[in-house]
Write a structure and sequence with these properties.
Number of helices: 6
Number of strands: 7
Distance between the termini: 29 Å
Structural class: alpha/beta
Strand order of the largest sheet: 3-2-1-4-5
Number of domains: 2
Order of helices and strands: EHEHHEHEHEHEE
Strand content: 15-25%
Shape: globular
Largest sheet: 5 strands, parallel
């Protein structure tokens, strides 16, 4: 069964995961704020240097594409992996600014989408950050409530 995935972020880990998912026969749309990364993947080029990545992209290019539009990526997928940087801030704590941006954009996209959509955060965050800081962002911007078990899937409130 072919599934449709989106991957928020097109850096080293992100693009490698997107290509690996495509290698299993699934459709993948990457989304990034960097037009060079999006253009590179759409042209069939690895946007980052990673051993074996270009070969994987070459072999599965027909199932891989990219966009700068989060709404398009969410609309055209069933599950979104969020794999964006969480750099240290001036205090040495993890900065959630890029994750929060992705979650806001995903929330806006979910507001217009019917049915369930799973969001998987793989970025490094501290315990509690997802439940108390990030999940409320998606819920606020989507107008939907996350639910179903230990994973959060979004549907109408």
């Amino acid at each position: 069964m072919t599934r449709r995935f989106s991957v928020a972020g097109l850096a080293k880990k992100d693009t490698s995961i997107a290509a690996a998912i495509a290698s299993k026969g699934h459709e993948v749309i990457g989304v990034d704020v960097n037009p060079r990364a999006v253009d590179a993947l759409n042209a069939g080029r690895a946007p980052v240097q990673e051993t074996g990545l270009q070969d994987l992209i070459d072999q599965h290019r027909s199932r891989l594409r990219a966009t700068m539009n989060h709404a398009e990526a969410v609309r055209e997928s069933e599950l979104t992996f969020v794999i964006v940087p969480t750099p240290s801030d001036e205090r040495g704590a993890l900065s959630l600014q890029y994750v929060a941006h992705a979650f806001r954009e995903i929330g806006h996209a979910l507001a217009a989408k019917n049915g369930w959509h799973t969001v998987v955060l793989t970025s490094t965050v501290l315990p509690g950050a997802t439940r108390y800081g990030l999940l409320p962002i998606i819920e606020e911007h989507s107008g939907k409530k996350g639910g179903i078990g230990s994973t959060k899937q979004f549907s109408k409130k």
